[in-house]
Structures are given as C-alpha cells and as structure tokens.
Amino acid sequence: RLKSAVSSGEIPKIRLLAGALGGAFVALQTSVVPLIGVALYSVASIAGQSAVSLLVDRIGLTGGGVKLISPRRIAAAFITVIAVLVSVIDKLEADNFQLFALLLALIAGALVGVQRALNGQINEYSQNSYTTSLLNFITGTSFLTLFIIILIALGRVELQPLPGGPWWIYTGGVIGVIYIAATSLIVQHLGVLTFTLFSVGGQLIASLLLDIYSPTQGVSVSWYLVSGIAMTYIGVLVGGVRQSRLERR
C-alpha cells in the first residue's frame, strides 16, 4: 500500500526520508553535547521537540488527524520543558552556555518532532510499523554514511575501531528499531505532543533507575531529578491522553 501511495502521489516521496532527520539528529547531538554538556542539551532539545510537536499536531502531519493548539496543550509542553530543566539544574554550568550550540540543540529536537510525525504518516500507508522502522534506518544510515564520508574528506574526523566491552552495549540499534516502530504507531493515535510528554517521563524514570542501580562513578541521585519526574507527569495530566483525543478534528 505504501508503494501505491507513493506512486499515486498520496504521500510525497520526500517524506520517505524521515529517517534522514533521525540521522541529522544524531549528527547534531554528537556535535553539540561536547560543547554544552548533556544537561543543557537535553533541556534545549526537549524544548524544540515540544514546540514542533504542537505545530505538527496542528497541521495533522501524523496522519491521525488535526489536534488543535489549546491552552492545555501549550501548558503541558511548557511544564515538560520546565520539568527537564529542574531535573538537570544541578548539572548545568554557566561556562557551558553557548547560544549557537543551544540553537543547534533546539533544531535537533525540532527534527525529532517532525520525524515522529512523518513516521506516523508513513505508517498509515505501510500498515506495518516495522516496515516504517526499516525504512527509517535505511535512510538514516545512508545519511550518516554520507555525512561521515564528507567529514573524512574534509579531514575533520578519522575512523576509529569499535569500542570493546560487553555484548549488550551494542543492543542499542535493536532497541532503536523497536522504538521507531512503536513511535510510528503511537503518534497516529495520541499525537506527537502527547507521545513526547510520556517519552520524556519515561526517559527521566529510566535515568533515575540507572542512577540508583547502575550509578556512574561520582554521580548520585538528586532531588532535582525526582522533582523533574513528578513535574513531567503533571504535564502529562495537564495535556491528557483523553484531551488529546477529544481535540482531534
């Protein structure tokens, strides 16, 4: 069905390149994090995701219908960004503040928001979330390969051997396949913003559990993180899954 939709022009071919947005996100992330740190990057990226999520839901880019930009949805997005800020506030450093790098982090987050919406639209036609995921990884890998080749040609990077370690450190790709497949299905029903709210909450809870059960040396669980998690789910309640469905037009 996806092939026939592309052939008939129901879905523009350029939208099949959603995976390239994911590749661009990875490229920006690896470039920006060393400049401003993970904490500040997380806040800026989530802000970009939240803002764009409102827009793509309003446009109806997910294929699941239009969702109006209501005060509740704006408040939910704002609360979520503040929650992330609170959760990492003890890790922010003033000397890490670089306006251009922050702008790139915002753009990276925005790309993720658009990618999720396009994946939902692709999945509407493919009717198979793993087909959508496969298409994403093909285009994303192609983009990153081209990006690396360009950087090597410019002398900016050198190829390095893969790091050693336990086998499970390489399972991230498998998790990514499942994540993209789930995302493409869920955003059709909940919208990108609601998915983003739950996703951020899940990320913060996972961070808390990792800090408790597999802490990095010198890192301890902070009340900022716990408070941020609580605020995130306040944002989820304010936005509301039920409200998200009611506002679909």
From TrEMBL:
Keywords: Membrane, Transmembrane, Transmembrane helix. GO terms for cellular component: plasma membrane. It holds the Pfam family DMT_YdcZ. It comes from the Bacteria. InterPro entries: YdcZ. The chain crosses the membrane at residues 38-61, 73-90, 96-114, 134-155, 167-187, 192-210, 222-241. This is EamA-like transporter family protein. It comes from Actinobacteria bacterium BACL2 MAG-120802-bin41.
